[in-house]
C-alpha cells in the first residue's frame, strides 16, 4: 500500500497548513466558547450566526489557498536553487 507522505516534508509548509486549518475550524465552528458568548450577549441565533459568518469564512479559505500556493512556490524555488 503506497503512502502519499513525502520522505522529507517541508516543515514550514506543513506548519502553515496546520495553523490555517486550525484557525478555519475555530472561526467556523458555531459551538466554540467565544461564539456561544457572542450569540448569548447579542441574542444571535445559531442559524443567523452561521449565515452571517459564511462569507468571511469562504473569503478566508480563498486567502489560505492562495497563501499556501505562494509558500509552496517559494519553497520549491529555494529547493531548486533559483533563490538562495
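-> sequence recovered:
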Amino acid at each position: 500500500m503506497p503512502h502519499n507522505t513525502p520522505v522529507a516534508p517541508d516543515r514550514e509548509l506543513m506548519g502553515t497548513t496546520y495553523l490555517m486549518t486550525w484557525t478555519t475550524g475555530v472561526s467556523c465552528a458555531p459551538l466554540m466558547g467565544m461564539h456561544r458568548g457572542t450569540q448569548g450577549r447579542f441574542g444571535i441565533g445559531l442559524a443567523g450566526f452561521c449565515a452571517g459568518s459564511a462569507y468571511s469564512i469562504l473569503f478566508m479559505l480563498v486567502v489560505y489557498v492562495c497563501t499556501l500556493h505562494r509558500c509552496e512556490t517559494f519553497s520549491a524555488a529555494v529547493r531548486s536553487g533559483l533563490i538562495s
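Residues 54-84 form one domain.
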